[in-house]
Amino acid sequence: MLDVNNIYKTFNPGTVNQKTALNGVSLHLAPGDFVTVIGGNGAGKSTLLNAVAGVWKVDSGTISIDGVDLTHMPEHKRARYIGRVFQDPMMGTAATMQIEENLALAARRGKARTLRPGITKADREEYIERLKILDLGLENRLTSKVGLLSGGQRQALTLLMASLRKPKLLLLDEHTAALDPKTAAKVLDATEKIVTRDNLTTLMITHNMKDAIQHGNRLIMMYNGHIVIDVSGEEKKKLTVPQLLELFSKVSGSDEASDKLLLS
User: Fold this and answer.
1) 54 vs 117: CA distance, rounded Å
2) What pTM does this model have?
3) What is the DSSP secondary-structure string of 158-182?
4) Do 142 and 158 meet the contact criterion of CB atoms below 8 Å apart?
5) What is the pLDDT of residue 145?
6) Which of 59, 123, 174, 199 maximizes the CB count within 10 A of its CB?
7) Domain count of the fold of the chain
């Protein structure tokens, strides 16, 4: 479903601030793969996600989704294939619009505009059922302005909007990092349910190693613009945080305490 082939991205080339963020990265996701991505600051995680989303073009290499070459496709055109949830809960929703209006926008993404009613009775019934999976009581607040919701509620709504029409690829960019632990756990639980129910191909960045091990069927770790660890199946299920840290030290050749703190 996702094919990333030998991509490179260097920022500020030819200057003292030159930084190679992606150094020949290749990654292939089968349909339904739920891949968690971890790594220290500057490892290349967000750069990889932004490259796939089209925020910036890669220097070389190719990116395709479901057989469609997106390498030179602008970000707004990739939106028909990609659903995305950002780290900031304030992004991804329109604060001055109602919950049902936000969901209606998400439901009609990429469709031609018509003169029919914006939200029908059938639409509302669907939104109520979909909101129930979040377990936040939002199904009873369809006409509430999104700006009145908490950060966690807005993030959960953004997740629902990003996955409403089953994108080819769902990108989750540390989407629980700004939430309190209790709300983060609820959003992650909803994420697992939605991804499993709809068999969504998903790439999720996280700094939490326990979450990376617990969720998804595959885990990759990045370091200095490379993928240094790629585990799946039973091997992933049996991993512990200490084992993952030890594995990281071996493959990266680094025992720096700062790296371990960033990852733990």
Assistant:
1) 33
2) 0.90
3) HHHHHHTT--SEEEEESTTTTS-HH
4) no
5) 95
6) 174
7) 1
